Amino acid sequence: MTTTVWWIRRDLRLADNCALATALEGATRLVPLFVVDPHLTGHSARSQRRIAFLFSALRALDEALRERGSRLVVRSGDPVEVLPRVVAECGATLVAAEADFTPYARRRDERLRSLVPLRLTPGLTLRMPGTVATRDGRPPRIFRHFARAFLAAGEASRDDLLPPPRRLPPLPPLASEPLPDPPASLPEHWTPSETVARARLARFLGDAIARYHEARHFLDGQGTSRLSPYFRFGLLSVREAWHRAAELLDDPERGPGARAWLDELLWREFFHHLLAAFPESVTRSLRPAFRDVDWPGEPWALAAWREGNTGFPVVDAAMRQLAHEGWISNRARMVVANFLTRSLLVDWRAGERWFRKHLIDADLAANVGGWQWCAGTGTDAAPYFRIFDPVRQAERFDPTGEWIRQWVPELAAVPQPYLSAPWTMPLSLQLSTGCRVGRDYPAPIVDLSAARERALAWFRPVTRRKG
Ligand SMILES: Cc1cc2nc3c(=O)[nH]c(=O)nc-3n(C[C@H](O)[C@H](O)[C@H](O)COP(=O)(O)OP(=O)(O)OC[C@H]3O[C@@H](n4cnc5c(N)ncnc54)[C@H](O)[C@@H]3O)c2cc1C
After folding, report:
1. Which residue of 305, 330, 336, 359 sits with most ligand 1 atoms within 8 Å of its CB, as the best mutation to test the pocket?
2. Whose CA is nearest to atom 24 of ligand 1?
3. Is-catalytic flag, 423?
């Protein structure tokens, strides 16, 4: 009798799951285990919606396991204490789990290595972090270099994708706690299950991908796959998504979109490899020149940004959608991150923390990577003089104004030409539309051209320093 443990962490799927396949090798009894770790789920700073997504996904996984003759075993506590207990109770000879490269996961797994027979497998990324290197053997710090090295290494074959098992070995006698209840409700369009994730991928690749390279820029996020929470919790294999999109590269209609989409999957990959190589980047600017600077942004500015009360409709719509739905488009993320760090000169770490608290898809690697890129503090980052004009961003990327009106209802009656800059409305119009700037909707918290000069004056000397 060989008993193994499949320790499920952020790979809540049966298809193309290396950890599951490793646990199944030679196993006559399998324990699909989820540990509810208070460090990851108990924090008030965590997004309740993200936890709800995770716990709902666990229910779906449990159902899929039951259909295959197994079920989920749930235990709560610190995994460093729980895992050795479970292994002792069932006599397991192996604990297989997907490698995770966040600093917390690495510390936890390091401690566990001496306590249980832990084997970490690939799965979270296309390639294991640490295996993509420049010619001098170092981890690439620039996206272009990373992409070149990644593609030069050749692609894993599609045949390597692992099918979902039809049946699973039985469980040994083992007590389980009930599945945890989701602490919040989820917006209808986030149904967390592997089946839904695969159907979404198929739908996206079947149609919307043909317009992706153009539509992805729009603020409403309707032109992208909206798969990020599914990738975040591994309801979908990124390897499978990569292969399915790569098959479309020669398709005359879908090829250009597929190329652009694969590039975004590569950015995800890049940030995961970067976090693994530079774990300190979670709290420290990657560019040394920014490490000992004091960002002059004031707390009231950060508060207005968080609340979506800056007086700039594009920023306020994004921040309110984030608070309400737990998801915003990549364009919206870039606009608000650029505004916070450039126009308000607030430290990127405050924005990163706020996103982490609210995003359903919050992923340490992508979030820290995205923030350091936008702030100009990353190894590969937007140049400091690239300061978005929030008025122009709204005009270009929400041309009908529908998205802004949805999230900033005070502006519902404001005519289109004034929607991106309501403070320019004549007073008579403010009165007739019921949107008096400074009363019904905030006046802009900064003067854009003065903020631009202030940002340039602050960034210029810092970026001229070495590093
Ligand atoms: C400041 C900032 C913070 C961000 N924080 C996160 C985060 O916490 N979690 C997260 O998953 N993404 C984050 N992103 C990246 C990106 O905005 C989201 O992945 C994307 O908007 C998700 O929508 P989608 O699934 O429709 O993406 P699509 O455009 O359909 O792309 C497909 C997938 O590729 C990945 N991806 C796309 N763009 C990026 C990118 N720029 N960087 C890394 N991966 C990308 C995601 O996994 C995404 O699901 C952040 C970007 C910025 C600028």
Report:
1. 330
2. 226
3. no
How many other C-beta atoms are found inside a 10 Å radius of the C-beta of residue 424? Answer: 11
Structural domain count of the chain: 3
Q: Based on the fold, state whether residues 436 and 330 are members of the same structural domain.
A: yes
Cα dihedral sign for 63, 65, 66, 67?
Answer: positive
Nearest CA to ligand 1 atom 8: 362
In this structure, which amino acid lies at residue 415?
P
Indicate the residue among 100, 123, 146 that finishes a domain: 123
231 part of a folded domain: yes
Q: What is the CATH classification number for the domain harbouring 204?
A: 1.25.40.80
Q: Is residue 157 located within the same domain as residue 115?
A: no
What kind and span of H or E run contains 256? Answer: helix 255-277
Q: Give average pLDDT by consecutive 10-residue segment, the chain, 467 residues.
A: 97 98 97 94 75 96 98 98 98 98 97 98 95 89 94 77 97 96 87 97 97 97 97 97 96 97 97 96 94 95 98 98 96 98 98 96 97 93 89 98 98 97 97 96 98 96 80
Phi, psi of 425 (to 5 degrees): -70, 135
Q: Can you tell me which atom of ligand 1 is nearest the CA of 228?
A: 49
Residue numbers of the domain that contains 234: 125-161+194-277
Same domain? For 85 and 22 the reply is yes
Give the burial class of 38: count Cβ atoms within 10 A of its Cβ; 0-12 exposed, 13-18 middle, 19 or more buried: exposed
The Cβ of residue 167 has, within 10 Å, a number of other Cβ atoms equal to 9
Q: What are phi and psi of 427, to 5 degrees?
A: -55, -40
